[in-house]
Amino acid sequence: MSQAQGQLRYRGQCDDCSWTGRPFVRYGTADTAARDHADAHRHTAFVADQYDLRIVGSTVRPGEARQH
Ligand SMILES: [Zn+2]
Questions:
Q1: How far apart are the CA of 12 and the centre of ligand 1, in A?
Q2: Which domain of life is it from (predicted)?
């Protein structure tokens, strides 16, 4: 793929369903996507890196999506 594709390292994922967000270069963008998913579906979401490893502290539970 393109050079930009290799820089996409963060994406939201969900503990409660099989949702996986689009990959983003910026952590904050993936974090926002995870929070949106948690809010919309009342699921516990988190952000993972390019190795599918959960980012420590990124877990967002329903109802606390706007806190950090
Ligand atoms: Zn979900």
A1: 10
A2: Bacteria
